Amino acid sequence: MRFRAKVVSIDCIHHFTNVVNTISKLLKKCTLRLTLDKMYFILPDQVSNGGVSMWCELKQANFFDEYQMDGASKEHNEIYLEIVAENICRALKSAQNAKSLKIKLTKKQTPCLTFEVELPSIASNSRLVTHDIPVSVIPRRLWGEYEEQEMPDFHVSICMPPMKTLKNIAERLKNLSTYLTIAANQDGDMTMKVETELVSATTRFQHLEVPPVTSTDEETQSKDWPQNEFASARVDIRKFLQFLAGQQINPYKVICSKCFDGVAEL
């Protein structure tokens, strides 16, 4: 197996760093999947245990000036690596003013993802900083555990308010309860509610954007759900705040899709 990639654009380095920083705020270990045209950061389905699953997909052409990859075999031309996301963040900290960034799969005492950061220098020769990050190669027989999860049919899909606004509200509500109920309908209404034996507090949003239904959504969106009917999901406030605090890619739109049985997709 071989992998080698190079980034020259400082804007691409910064954007890639922001993506990895966001991922590291959500999880400790993740799976890095490498294909010829895409790079994936995956956390397998943990919802059944009350956890979070994640699927992050990056087109390599949007980030890398050079990209070469030879996978496990010609039939299965992919590479799966288990890696600690925070270690990638530490390596990328030294690349914020880099002339270039190289990433390659190497074999030291253990398999490593090596980051070579070329830094500008007053002298004629550039400085080179190298970070070796240990990885575990995932065997082919386990690849099926890292396929993209099929989302359940959802009843409501809505564009959420700004992340900063949600974070400020959730910070206050966490002092009242451990769990938060998020509800929305297709009229653009959304509520955030906590309820205990002693207190009930609700924040309401109106006139939010409702994303248009695409051909893909038509396969997963319930067609019998009344437009003004609310669908709700009950989430752990701490995990919801962890998601909000980790956003460093400044998304212009965050869509939340909810099922009546309490499942939420962000």
Task: Note down, in words, how this protein is organized.
The strands form 4 sheets. This protein has a 5-stranded antiparallel sheet with strand order 5-1-7-8-9. A 5-stranded antiparallel sheet has the order 4-3-2-6-10. The protein is 19% helix and 36% strand. The radius of gyration is 21 Å and the shape is elongated. It is an alpha+beta fold and 266 residues long. It folds into 2 domains: 2-146, Proliferating Cell Nuclear Antigen; 156-265, Proliferating Cell Nuclear Antigen (Box), CATH 3.70.10. The two termini are 34 Å apart. Helix 1 (10-26) packs antiparallel against helix 2 (85-93) and helix 3 runs antiparallel to helix 5. It has 5 helices and 17 strands.
What is the strand and helix layout of this fold?
Layout: E1 2-7, H1 10-26, E2 29-34, E3 38-43, E4 54-59, E5 66-70, E6 79-84, H2 85-93, E7 100-107, E8 111-119, E9 127-134, E10 136-137, E11 156-159, H3 163-173, E12 179-184, E13 190-195, E14 200-205, H4 217-220, E15 231-236, H5 237-245, E16 255-258, E17 264-265
Antiparallel strand pairs: 1-5, 1-7, 2-3, 2-6, 3-4, 6-10, 7-8, 8-9, 11-16, 12-13, 12-15, 13-14, 16-17
Helix pairs in contact: 1-2, 3-5
